[in-house]
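#dry-run=false #mode=assembly
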Amino acid sequence: MTATAGIVFRLAWRNLWRNYRRTAIVLAAIVAGIWAMIFMIAFTRGMIESMVSDGIRSIPGHVQIHHPDFRNDPTVDNLMPSPGGELAAALGGEDVVAWSSRVRVPAVISSERGSRGVTLLGIDPVAEVPISFVADDIVEGRHLENERDRGLILGRRLLERIETDVGKRVVVMTQGTDNEVVDRGFRVVGVFESEIASTEEAFAFAGRAALQDLLAIGDQVSEIAVLGKNRREAEQLHRRLAETANAEVEVLPWYELNSYLGTTMRTMDGFVIVWIVVIFLALSFGFVNTLVMAVFERVREIGLMMALGMKPRTILAQIIAESLLLLAIGLAVGNILAWATIHLLSDGIDFSFVGEGLEIMGAASVLKPSLGIKDVLLSTAIVLGLGFVASLSPAIRASRYHPVAAITKE
Amino acid sequence: MDSVRCVGLYKTYKQGDQIIIGLDGVNLEVEQEGFACLQSPSGAGKTTLLNAMGGLDRPDGGEVYVAGKRIDNLSKGQLAEMRLHNIGFVFQAYNLIPVLTAMENVEFVMQLQGVPASERAMRAREALNEVGLEGLENRRPAKMSGGQQQRVAVARAIASRPAIVLADEPTANLDSSSARHLMELFAKINETRGTTFVIATHDEMAMSYAKRLIRMRDGKIVEDQLQET
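#status=ok
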């Protein structure tokens, strides 16, 4: 068996380089196809990763805990107590990197020159640091010092819309627990910028305790945002927390909180497979044609090997080995080239000229290709699998030759 | 015991609307260590008979036995297995695998047989020396003359130690000197190793080396005689 495998491999390898010009041309096409396949996957993955990580960083965390009705009616009517007891212990688990409880209400922020509707988040600035983007992205002024801080952090765009500035006072108006409108003056202490410009208009940040005072809700909170080690492990984290939490709260992972992102991620997996298959189909015409030609040119030789006692299945294996060897070389070189390209572009590709379109999709304007081992393995497996199928036809044809007819073929 | 035995072999071919009779009730036994030549004009059945004896082609009727085992009813895969272990072939042309060296060509059949690498190399080298090709082990067929290529084919045929070596017009593409050397080689191997040879030829010189001469006409054996060499 090993000896037969040895001769099969040796013949496959030498036959491959018999017509080296033809092999080089087909190989170049395979390498270009594999490069395009891997690079496009990495590029699209990078875009999706950017959308997801920005989405997760900009508000949700990996898992969130709410009052069961909060998502349908995100007001002060659907609050929950600060975490305690078993839930607090669960939040101290090893799979939790950080967690933060927030108060989240719709509000109107007014300056002397304009007003805008926003989502106002009352946060504990220290607990929030690892979870959300605000601390890193403050470009002017300061961050909130603690949860009692009575300052306000606004996005650059909002600041420009309502024509105010750091150090100036604005009025925050929202609805309290008794359906009465409550308002208070806050001083703008900091400005943040986000890669997704719409975020700069949609959110404002205040100290959690300061907002709880304004709303007179005691230590109740709207949500608990939990950051796990990895967004791909969110499902396990979600399951563990959901088992611990009582029925009075709802525990949801990020992909359910932001169904657009969740669906995009799932769609991406399907897209990767479709993309690999499309590229391979384009390649397969040249690939199969080469294989058919290679078999056709060697009819007498195949006849001779059969006459000498090589079994039809060994002939089949030899032709398939030849095609898989060609694909394997193409895959190796194509992957290396794609990896090198991705490495060279690791700082990202600036697509600011179509930044608005990307923003609508929730993606940043600088896209960094991201190559996952899973995608490389998947594309390798699919290409080899399809290559195997594509080479079956010429291989079966060769294995069915009649030795006498083949040897005497002109 | 016979190396090969054919009983009542029939074979026909269709050529357009015409039915051509390839073999017409051929009975033949070739004993071990025999050296037989099949002689006939072109198209009289010698290659057809050789192919049937070697399990390369199936007769329409009759039975073929190689080393005592019936082979005409074997499947394609079983026939390949039988050829691998029992038959050595030397064809008129295109005898060697172009991408393999002389040594690798000789080892080819043994490798398929599963002979261990060291023994394979030893037997291949020995066979190449025996056919006078020492020093050409690493040469590929394209770099060898027709006579040298035929000798590699002979080395391959004897190295795998088959029950019988079948040669179809082995001298047809050789000049007279190379042809004579090849036939001398066959005779020497038959003498020293006891290898059975059946050679299809219409070359009078080649026939002169055979111990037994079998003449065919219209798919029938018309003469079967022993001769002095």
